[in-house]
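Notes from hallway chat w/ T.B., transcribed later so I don't forget. T.B. wanted the structure written out for a chain they're using in a teaching module, and asked if we could keep both sequence and structure tokens in one place. Agreed to drop them here.
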Amino acid sequence: ALCAAYDGTLVFKNMTLEDYTGSDWGLTGGWRQGYFELSGKVRFENCNIKASLFLCAGSETEFKNCECTSLAENMYSVWAAGKTVKMDGCTFKGFRGLKIHEQPEYDLLIERVDLTDCEFLNLTKKPGIAIGNIELDDEPTEIYLDGCLFENCQPWDKDGSYEGIDGFYEADTASGDFVFVWTDTTV
């Protein structure tokens, strides 16, 4: 399903968004199958998100005080492939947390991801953040974390990933150079 804000900002406030259709998604489906796709300017405030969100081409998405729960072991709570993502005071639970991954052939390019006071708790399949193909358009992808907590998340996949820090992140495909800065972050 695709939800696009073409003019203005689409706001989800004080609500629960549940989508269990992706929980049965198998690896035989398309790589975006089972994700709720969002494009344009979108803001989530005080939401409980029990779904897998895919932030599409050109999206500028903000999350404030949201709980994001992945319901399937092969799907992320949030897959960032759009222009910018800002998260403040959000919590990730379930199987997988945040995926940051560009696909230039589909105009899926990321400029900046900002996480402030976010928690990644008890993720059972992956570390808190997975970094895929980024920095593919010769523009620097910037990832900033401030005051975040990573607790009881899985170690990075040393056999399938290029780099990582246990529980915190893994770079699971060959990525170009990118800016990755974390301050006051606990792993």
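Follow-up for T.B.: The CA atoms of residues 22 and 34 lie 4 Å apart. Might be a good example for the class.
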